[in-house]
User: Fold this.
Amino acid sequence: MRRILVSWLILLTLAVLAPACDDGGAANNANNANNTNNTNNANNANNANNTNNTNNTNNVVTPMEGVSDARADCILRRAKVTWTDPQTQPAAAILVRAGDRTVEVAPGVETVDLTGLPDDTELTFGLRARAADGRLSEETTVSCRTPAPSTDYLPPVGPYLTLLTPAPEPVHQTPTALDPSTHMVVHYESAVEGFSGTVFVRPTGETAWLEAPQDPAVTGFPAGFGEVHHFTLAGLTPDTAYEYQVLGPDGALTPVFEFRTLPAAHDRVRFLVLGDNQDELALQRWAAVAAALVSGHLDEFDFIVHVGDMAKDDVEHEGERHYWWRVFFEKGRELFARRPIYATPGNHDTPANPDVTSFVDAYWANAEDTLSFRKYFYIDPNMTLPDDYHFSAGCAFFAVANTEVPVFYGRHPERDTTGRVDAQRAWLNAVLGGPDTSRPWVFVVNHVPPFAPSGGKDEVPFVRPYVTNFHRRVDWNLAGHVHQYQRTRPLVADADVHAFAKEYGRQASQGVGYLMVPPAGQWPRAEQLEAMDEELASYPMYAGNAALETGFTIIQISGEDFSLRTWGLGDVNARNPAGYGDTGGKRLLDALNYTRRATPSTSDFPWCHYRGSTNGWKTTAMTLVEDSTWEITVLVTPGEAPGFKFFTDHTGERWYGDDPPLDGLAHSWEAANLAFPPGAGAYTIRFHDVLRHYTVTPVP
Ligand SMILES: [Fe+2]
Assistant:
């Protein structure tokens, strides 16, 4: 017997399941039309019946026989109505009325499934048989009550959101990114074998839930690897909030979570950059970082870029294959259930390569097994296919490269029998010049940075050749791995050398920014090299030494206006000096604002350094943010008596101070420190190198 599924009120199920790139509005219209037809059919049937009655006023009309054995059975947000068709008079159709909607069912079907029904509601369904001549039977009514579901289900993993589909894009066979204005992919792992999941979704404000069945299972993972339930929602309306719940094996639902699709076309982009969570349960700060993000920053970004090292390690623990992945997703659930994540694997997200024993490092790179990463991020487990990918969102293009490839094969070139390093570099070069990079802003995302002034990471040189593609094509490189927040000065670099530019941008005299996000949970590193003072425009400092901070970065772009904020939540083991004031609370570490210029800014100074109490009177390069205007953000710690000067080589190397009475002008012949307002916190300092005017402003 055929099963017929009919949604209650509005038949939007088809819109949810529509193929990729389907227009949501069109799908809705089609469904509305379908509803209208149903209603019209019912009305026409009534009219026909009336007409028939009128025309046969003087004749005896045999009443149409009704259905028998009718019953309704309610389950979660569904009802199944069954009946037996008329036995003595053939019916042309059975009309099933649900509220003010009527569904027409062909004879012989004798059942209809209604979906999207309200919870905890007594529902009555009316059934009438219609003869070929339009006569209608008396209505038979049946009722049932939908259950009130529990909403306390929390899956072992998820729910979480992404925007990749495993279908390889045709040119480079990389995973395909979906349009974030019309799609969302919901995932969760129930860990119950044979269970097939369901996602209930609706535009926020609508009453009817739409049911999305899970995507076909991804095959090719080893036995015992577990199964993630994937749900690709297509045909969504751009710039629209949606609510959803996922169904557990025992019939309970999760709480309601909400996501929002991006606008169809817009000139802005807002995203969170995370890395190096690696939480070992009670010892790290990932839960605190996630809680700070959900409570204080959720409205500041539309998606998450993860630069890798999500799991503590991709190893079995306490008899469970993906124990540390579960910790990552569990502590981040409130965040990942609401914002989609684009991720790249880090070395901890892969297992140690069992065939390679020449390294004592416990966290070997492994480009030959990213199966766990592929399992959770919905990527084909065929390891001959790359897990690099690119995506576009708003005004930005992102190339996401797996640095396990250059690092692992850099150490073991004899194993690169298929030329994966060269293929990845060719891919990166191709996509950075490809049609998608016509988006105004370009980012490259990877775990191991190609440039790390704090040093101490042998892997970095293997990734450095990436930058050959960057000058004039890339705005920012986003990485992690070093467990220390670092933002470089604008750099013009190739695989061997680098030079400093005065401002960030894509013109010949401008440079690329390299960002290493603070660890979002794991221990920060205390490595400190002289190169940091020369090469970095920002890193958390206390009295001239690197401070230890967990945290995250949020980037917002509108038109040509770039804004970056990096927040810290302190160390993991309270290793910062007492004077730094590390309470584990959140504070702003770095802020950068500039308008990208097609015509490079001009300046009187060749460079300008900030030297003061916050950096131990060392030299930190200021960034040119508009004509003759140099900027830096510094962190003043509690109890600190801040003081600073500028230092440059304008007409010989000189300090610039401000003698009393302070007049807000810095000159090389004034010896006293420049004016600084009282109070701890982050301050943006600006200096005009022609007017010599300077400002010190608390960062809001
Ligand atoms: Fe790492």
In short: Confidence is low (pLDDT under 50) at residues 1-6, 8-57. DSSP finds ten helices and 42 strands in the chain. Residues 205 and 602 are 52 Å apart (CA to CA). The radius of gyration is 31 Å.
